[in-house]
Design goal:
A hairpin with a 2-residue loop joins strand 9 and strand 10. Helix content is about 30%, strand content about 25%. The protein has helices at about 15-20, 60-65, 90-95, 110-120, 130-145, 160-175, 190-205, 215-225, 240-245, 245-255; strands at about 20-30, 35-45, 50-55, 75-80, 85, 95-100, 180, 210-215, 225-230, 235-240, 255-260, 270-275. Helix 4 packs parallel to helix 6, helix 5 (about 130-145) packs antiparallel against helix 6 and helix 6 (about 160-175) runs parallel beside helix 7. The chain is globular.
Length: about 280
Amino acid sequence: MSTRINSVEPKPSCHRLAAHRLAAHGLALGHGKLQVIEDLELALPDGQVTAIVGPNGCGKSTLLSGLARIHRPRSGAVLLDGRDIFRQSSREVARTLALLPQETSAPEGMTVMDLVRFGRQPHQDWLRQWSGEDQAAVQRALAAADVSDLADRALDTLSGGQRQRAWIAMSIAQQTPLLLLDEPTSALDLGHQIEVFELIRSLADAGKTVAMVVHDLVSACRYADHLIAMQQGQIVAQGRPEEVVTPELIHALYQITCDLLTDPATGAPIPVNIRRA
């Protein structure tokens, strides 16, 4: 029988949830006959990086797709600026929230500039065509993601870290206050992981609200302000990493035992002496 860790914070009321830009109330999500998430309460802290962690199959990516309006709830609601996200138009949502999924693909030969320009699509319609404002937003996004010098390069000629920064630049060009990332450093080596995490950190420092699914608990603790731990479709702990990450929580999530040290530079907890329980 798996161990259940009590949340460090009480479940927020619907009124409290509505005060956040992105929240969920009584959320239930599933695939076919499989119920993945049930009666989940969540409020993303504004202007911070939230890392969602937990074992494979616990519902992290399903939750993110539900928050992004990709996955329709079976019950409950996702609230964007206090309103049911499914009662808002796709264009309205796309101007407030950007999602970078785990799997990304682009046509062969597409350049970084072409990709980043695509991020302006939610701001275009038959009455409003490409403008100087759009071009300025693209240039700012290229600079923020440190890919300006790669603008004319084809995506398929870039390193993994460079490609991921280009995709994040597209999301920045969308100019949304909310950014959701599903395993943004998947399959990247350590150096490229740090590139991407530091970019994410800089976006939050500039005021953006970011939620990301992360498998590496050490990186989650180092780069996130807020951590959500999931198990079997439920949030079992949430709060500042240094407050909620304990050997007991790690054992409950991953069936391992460990000791914890504190990073002297950041105060983040670091699991050491890790072994199977």
